[in-house]
Amino acid sequence: MPEDLVVGVHKHFDYVRLRLRGCLSLRNVPRVREVTVKSLLDSGRVLIDLSPLRCTQPAFVTVFPTALANAGGWPSARLVLYGADGAMRSMLLATRIPDTVHLAADLGSARALFDRRPPHVRRHRDLPMHNAAAAAARQFVRESCEIWEVVPEIREIAELLSSELVSNAVEHAHSSSRLTVTGIGSALRVSVRDYSRTPIPRPRPIDIGAFRGRGLHLVAALSRSWGVHQHSDGKTVWINLQLDAQE
Fold it and tell me: Which CATH class, in words, describes the domain spanning 120-242?
């Protein structure tokens, strides 16, 4: 650990408490992520005391939701931050960290938040450029929806569309991919990030004699909304599904 940040690890009966003292920086963010993920995997419940922590760059505090997602996300991994001073709290709020990781004033209120679902829940899985990736995507989405108690009708659509997007990454982008599933209030978002500079996909006219080529038409027809984010080294295709559409 770089000398400008010290991590104290305190193991309790049913949770682990981490105390971060010093300045969060580009050099020590990987170490903070590593310790947080390990603690979450070991115990499932982690509190992080931010009272002695300083940070100069808002991007660095994204280490907390990243660690939670890497450990499997809520509810298998539960993370709560507490004790932030005014400057740190303002930074956390500005970067919307409390959307995915609970933020409490003190230790007592932090422990009470372990069992409360965050406003946004997120899980991700990295998938290889392989024909089996689509099946793995369906299984991962099915598991995520079951954990979050998504109704079967929406779960089945999410499985189908995730399979189509991952298949596109394998067959057209010739790329591995990262599948992310996010629950945001009454919406479920599924996104697939590839690492290819292939053109942004657009639905093509359907060839009624072809066995494939209907993927983006399904996406457009079955999702509430969808879109593409371009990156310097690839793109992310995302879809939103309305969780209460059946009501």
Answer: alpha beta
pLDDT band at 205 (very low <50, low <70, confident <90, very high): very low
> Residue holding tokens 């991994």?
77
Residue type, 239: I
Question: Is the pLDDT assigned to residue 215 strictly greater than 80?
Answer: no
Q: What is the pLDDT of residues 221-233, one digit of tens each?
A: 898 899 999 999 9
Q: What is the pLDDT of residue 203?
A: 57
What is the three-state SS of the chain? CCCCEEEEEEECCCCEEEEEEEEECCCCHHHHHHHHHHHHHHHCEEEEECCCEEECCHHHHHHHHHHHHHCCCCCCCEEEEECCCHHHHHHHHHCCHHHCCEEECCHHHHHHCCCCCCCEEEEEEEECCCCCHHHHHHHHHHHHHHHCCCCHHHHHHHHHHHHHHHHHHHHCCCCCEEEEEEEECCEEEEEEEECCCCCCCCCCCCCCCCCCCCHHHHHHHHCCEEEEEEECCEEEEEEEEECCCCC
Domain layout of the chain by residue ranges: 5-112, 120-242
> What CA–CA distance (Å, rounded) separates 164 from 194?
13
What CATH superfamily is the domain 5-112? STAS domain (3.30.750.24)
Residue 200 clears pLDDT 50, i.e. is over it: yes
pLDDT of 36-82, one tens digit each?
Answer: 999 999 999 999 999 999 998 999 999 999 999 999 899 999 999 99
